[in-house]
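Re: weekly structure request thread

Next one in the queue (294 aa):
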Amino acid sequence: MAITAAQVKELREMTGAGMMDCKKALVECEGDFEAAKDWLRKKGISKAEKKEGRTAAEGLSRVKAEGNRAVVVEINSETDFVAKNEKFLALLDETVDVLMRNAPADLDAALALPTSEGTMNDAMINATAIIGEKIKLRRFEIVEKADDEVFGMYMHNGGQISALTVMKGGDAQIAKEMAMQVASMSPSYVSRADLPAEVIAHERTIQEELLNQDPKNANKPEQVKAKIIEGRISKSLEEMCLVDQIFFLDQDKKVGTYLNEKKAECVRFVRFKVGEGIEKKEADFAAEVAAMVK
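Done, posted below.
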């Protein structure tokens, strides 16, 4: 029996299974949708749909460079145990390679790219079904450099943090050191020249509120308060900017000083920390154990 693309699409929407699995199910069941759904359930494939609402805040990130192109990727799972799963690691490697070759513009375009399992989205769904946890391509960034620039890469703790730097001047070792600095010290901007005005204004508001909350500052002259606020703002902005941070390999130098000595400049950087910004559900283990013995 010939199976149409429309039938495959319909079954996929019903079950959340991958395109190839849906086609196989319909072929095996001669186009019977209910039988095909049962076939997928028995194979454990349609269970991926049930996991769609779960929180995936663990996983791994990767950074890779080839020629003048680099990619930083994060794929999430529900638990950190999956980071050692062969299927998950293979999926991560293939995802990096597919993104590197195709350089998609956004997440939707990435999920539509062809892989060994259909589309990238199919690969995520299939991994969810096989591994038993929600697997999700959360984000990626494609970075292009000029011929006279150098990539620096660093992955911490097997990919819990991945950092990429683009350097002008210097060499591969300096570029890697800067990637390590970015990974460990988590700057938000290269220098103060990159700071948006609203970020500075927001920091000023915070420091003014903090100062006024302290009773010890109540009777201080306004000009003294102003100097304290400016000092605190400057300190906070130093932590945000890469070149103003203390260099992790030489505590007596700032990064900017070190780079000047090496006649090098950081053009840009990317830093992914797995799960950052995702609200994780706190597990109530006592309640879980109580529920199990009922």
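The domain at 5-50 is CATH 1.10.8.10 (Helicase, Ruva Protein; domain 3). The chain has twelve helices and ten strands.
Next request, please.
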